[in-house]
Amino acid sequence: MGITTSRLTLPAPTSEKRKGQSLGGPVISLLDTHTTHWLADNAPAETHTEARAFCLRIIKEFYDIDYTPAWHADLDSMLGPTSCNWFSTERGGGFLLVRNERGAIVAAGGFYGLLNKPSTADRLYDRYRDPTHVCQIVRVYLDPLIRGKGLGTAMAKALETEARNLGYVTSYLHADAQTPNTLSFWKSLGYREFGRFSYPSPNGIDTSVDFEKPLSAISDD
To answer: Whole-angstrom Cα distance, residue 186 to residue 100?
Structure first.
């Protein structure tokens, strides 16, 4: 799982190292006894299943949304072979996990190439004529007990750095328009709102906010 340390450390953002054990990196002196690691392409199937289950749990608890195949295809892809996993190194993605002292996942976040979602790439075609250089940050979820401590910010920066190292130029994401704290969080990290879109949901019609950030704007700190 992770290299046991007295402080939470984020893995070094070097994609070719995401093959096995977790990596040391910049120290975040916030949460003792927690460890982080990139979800390796060759990780046991049980680890991929565990990561997916954590995300689905947070989605249900925070958004009150049940598993929906059309909405959670990225999470389902984690259960398939590497060539089908949107988050795999082979497909230009990445997925970060944080575990507590008992080894349980308490935070996660990932990114993948925008072309993994043709419907989104089509919707944003006028903005991203070359979507091969655009990644989408997704599934940045934290257990309620560790929110508000700076971990989400550190994870987002690690995802951005890894995406930039893989050649992406722009980071795209969308967030529920009815979650003001989430919207404020992404704005605080330099993401700029450029649009909104609505779609059918179990609650009727939901609206999400489109955000983007040039990866040239991130620092190496």
So the answer is: 25
